[in-house]
Specification:
Elements: E1 2-11, E2 14-20, E3 25-29, H1 36-48, E4 68-75, E5 80-87, E6 92-96, E7 99-100, E8 113-116, H2 128-142, H3 144-165, H4 171-210, E9 217-222, H5 233-246, H6 248-254, E10 265-270, E11 273-274, H7 275-278, H8 281-303, E12 308-312, H9 320-329, E13 335-339, E14 353-359, E15 362-368
Parallel strand pairs: 3-13, 3-14, 8-12, 12-13
Antiparallel strand pairs: 1-2, 1-4, 4-5, 5-6, 6-7, 9-10, 10-11, 14-15
Helix pairs in contact: 2-3, 3-4, 4-5, 4-8
The chain binds adenosine-5'-triphosphate and magnesium ion.
């Protein structure tokens, strides 16, 4: 899968920009604040319909302008397509091949994008919430309906917690909430279990490569219902419902829901030690890279296409050995790499690289390898 071209109109500090991309490496080079991340943000927008930096769409519209437009031509092994996003002060429209979509899940999966930013290097060190977000985003991308299940689950969880906080707790209504929470929850538990099993294998291999076989990475699903490989949607339904029922008194006292998917996490071990507790900074960062990059192989396994990889500002955070390992191991994917350091140009094979030099919302020059 690859992005062939990009058109931006009134997108952050760009007036009107048209770029044709290399099918391998695209290096966006420029000093701080010039507009490198703005470009990759717009690519992300084509994949997910929103920014990864803000939830307020109107912040993205160029100052003193009314509307923005992002359009991108992409190719997969079997087809070509066009995705367009238009945002006005109070409206937003997304088109896939010139047809307006109604729901965001109709967009997801057309272009698969994996984005790696400096925060991802802290994925292992951060709290469980960040890892849950990581899991949710990845599964949604492979399976758009997961996003719908999760949205429903969260809505019911919110209502259940509201009810628990009210003066009079209607137990019949609580029963109804429990039923639907468990109904959506059991699907999500199974999907998360299967997803984590897959990325555990892939990230173990990746980690093996990145550490020259010295470290063995093991990732497992941390959840409160002891879900196992034999569990089915039906058995998880029962387990989860039992857990909620037996804890109801406690939930009513504390006025919140103690058990459920919203407490899930990953156990991350290197050579049998919990890397969150005992790992060095370097080990935590490498484990984060292995975990995060496992998405690439996973998406390829699931959809039969490698995703587009965006590395925003991560390059300067890695030592040269890791930079090389990363680039060498990922030569099959189309990459967009932002960097402020011109020296990084030398890491890449010139024949497969296009360099875009960026200054104040303009691409001032393009150095082309063979496209
Ligand atoms: N809505 C907007 N309209 C106009 N300009 C904007 C808007 N939003 C952000 N900018 C400008 O975009 C620039 C930041 O761009 P961007 O984040 O892409 O920089 P960068 O090249 O990635 O920098 P760094 O190397 O520091 O990450 C800033 O100069 C900012 O003022
Ligand atoms: Mg940036």
């Amino acid at each position: 899968m690859r992005l062939n071209s990009l058109q931006l109109v009134n997108y952050r500090n760009y007036d009107n920009l048209h770029l044709e991309f290399n099918k391998k490496v695209n290096l966006l080079v420029g000093r701080n604040g010039q507009g490198k991340t703005n470009i990759v943000e717009s690519i992300y927008m084509l994949a997910f319909g929103k920014s990864f930096r803000t939830s307020k769409d109107k912040e993205i519209i160029k100052f003193n302008s009314e509307n923005l437009y992002v359009g991108g031509n992409f190719s997969t092994q079997h087809t070509n397509g066009l995705i367009e996003v238009a945002i006005g002060k109070n409206k937003k429209g997304i088109k896939v091949n010139k047809i307006h979509i109604q729901k965001i899940h109709e967009l997801l999966g057309n272009i698969n994008v994996v984005i790696f930013s400096p925060e991802d290097l802290r994925l292992v060190k951060e709290g469980p919430k960040e890892r849950r977000l990581f899991i949710d985003k990845e599964i949604s991308q492979i399976m758009p309906k997961y996003y719908n299940y999760l949205t429903s689950y969260n809505k019911i969880l919110f209502q259940r917690n509201q009810l628990l906080k009210s003066k009079y707790i209607d137990k019949a209504l609580l029963d109804v909430y429990d039923e639907s929470l468990v109904q959506y929850g059991s699907y999500i538990y199974i999907l998360r279990r299967d997803f984590i099993k897959k990325i555990a294998i892939i990230s173990k291999n990746m980690h093996d490569k990145l550490t020259d076989g010295i470290e063995e990475l093991s990732i497992t699903y941390k959840n409160q219902i002891n879900i196992n490989d034999e569990d089915t949607v039906a058995s998880v339904y029962n387990k989860f419902l039992d857990k909620l029922s037996s804890n109801r008194e406690h939930d009513m006292e504390t006025r919140t829901t103690k058990y459920g998917l919203h407490k899930d996490d990953l156990n991350i071990f290197i050579n049998d030690l919990d890397v969150r507790l005992y790992g060095s900074q370097g080990q935590q960062r490498t484990a984060s890279i292995s975990l995060k990059l496992s998405e690439i192989e996973l998406i390829n396994n699931e959809v039969g296409e490698y995703p587009i990889l965006i590395l925003d500002d991560v390059f300067s955070e890695l030592d040269e050995t890791r930079q090389k390992l990363l680039v060498d191991n990922l030569s099959v994917v189309q990459m967009f790499i932002t960097t402020a350091e011109v020296s990084h140009k030398n890491i890449f094979d010139k024949a497969n690289t296009t360099i875009f030099n960026i200054k104040q919302g303009s691409v001032i020059s393009i150095e082309n390898g063979g496209i």
